[in-house]
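tool_log.txt
---
The assistant was asked to compare two proteins side by side. It first ran the structure predictor on the initial sequence, then on the second. Raw inputs and outputs are pasted verbatim so the downstream comparison step can read them without reformatting.
(1)
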Amino acid sequence: MQGKDKNILDVTESIDAFKAKIKLWIHRMESGKMAAFPALNLFVEEKNINLRGIHRIFLEHLDTFVSELDRYIPSHSYKNMFNWVRSTFEVSALEFNSEMNSFAEQLIELQSLQMWRDKFKIVSLFQFWVNVLSKEPNLSDLYKQAAIALLPFPTTYLCEAGFST
């Protein structure tokens, strides 16, 4: 989840994947399988321990964990809000409300230029939007919104990486 050039879209996808894994673990635990937790599974098998008494505690803990992740980082809102940044040439300007008229018109302008369609396929997302800003100043509303999504997600990764070398 951490790393150089990570943005809210990347982090949200990682958290969504992690939440999906937890839900899978919950489903498997409900059917009595502890394979998602190899160390616990091995311990239980070696010691021949019955987890029926605390089984529900594990499930409640995992369920609470997913709820807390949803509360702190509501991924659906970021996905819906910034989907167009990653799918610039697949979304329709009609999807945006009338209050975003200038934005929608700029999106149409960008989508109509083949040069940008081609560039989108070969450069990084960040580099694409930097290029748009430098070459298409008339699309500044569009760029400003993309920049919000692409700002580096604040983590301690760079600090930790700097001190660990």
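(2)
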Amino acid sequence: MLALKELRQHVRGDLHIGEPLADHTVARRGGPADVLVIPERKDDFCRSILYFQKSDQPFRVVGTGSRLNDGGAGFRGAVILSHRALQGVSVTAGRVIAGAGTLLSDLPLDIALPEASTERHAEGSVGGALSMRCCSFCSELYGQVEWLELFRNGEARRVKPDGFGEGEVILSVAFRLGRKL
């Protein structure tokens, strides 16, 4: 059994037991998670991942849940929501830096995203789109990436887009400005 008291001591944010994911996702879908963690800040998010990795417990990271489809069965293990801890956008030195939990609709238009595609994915998160690359829009968005900040081996690391592997967790991303898709 998970030592949730220990998790509460190290991670600021909300912690729920048996909570329906539908109450926390934009698509209003998803059955109960054994444990639902909504970390307050990036360091809390990273500590929650580390906690579940070290305790060898199954966990899943979910952004906004716009493409979540568990058929109402929920998730055996923990779900860590990134939307609160990993949101925000800044524009500096020819790039847009966005947290993985940021809504795609909150990205500035300067990164030349096709308008129709943005509408279709408006409720999705940056991290979800880049992790899944489920369609041409997501693949084209990935083509705008200058670097990704990943949580890898217990720490945050910046990598080039070709350094991102399946199953890795994106913390933030830098998009190049001014390049048309």
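---
observation on (2): The longest strand covers residues 13-20. Strands lie at 13-20, 32-39, 59-62, 75-81, 89-92, 95-99, 145-152, 155-159, 169-176.
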